What does this fold into?
Amino acid sequence: MRVDGFRRLWTGAALGAAMMVVMGMGAADSARAQAPAQQQQPAQGVQQPSFDHPDPVPPEVRARMDAERLKMANDDRHKRLAQDADKLVALSNELKTDVSKAGKDELSMDVIRKAAEIEKLAHDVQSRMKN
It folds into this structure.
C-alpha cells in the first residue's frame, strides 16, 4: 500500500511539472504574439555575416587544391592496391604449398578458408580497380 502512495505522489509531481512547463511555454508564446514586432538593430561596430559573398578562395587556388587532393587520393588507392596484390601473391603461394602437401583425396579446412580469403580479396581488388 505504501509503494502505491509513493507512485501516486511521484506521478502527480511529474504531471504538475509537465503542466507548469506547458503553461509557461504558452504564456511566453502569447506574450511574444502580443508584443509589437521590433527589428533588432545590429550593435555599433559589429559587422553582420553576409552569405552573398563569393567564395573567398580564388578559383585558381581551389583548382590546384582539388588537383592535389585528387592526386593524394589516387596515390593512396594505388598504394593500397599494390599492398593487396602482394598479399594475394603471398596467399596464393601458401595455398599452392598447402595443396601440394595434402594428399590426393584430402583438403583441410585451412586450405578452404585460405581459398575463400583469396577469392574475397581478389574481388575487392577487382572492384577497386574498376572504380
Observations:
- The CA atoms of residues 41 and 116 lie 69 Å apart.
- The mean pLDDT is 77.
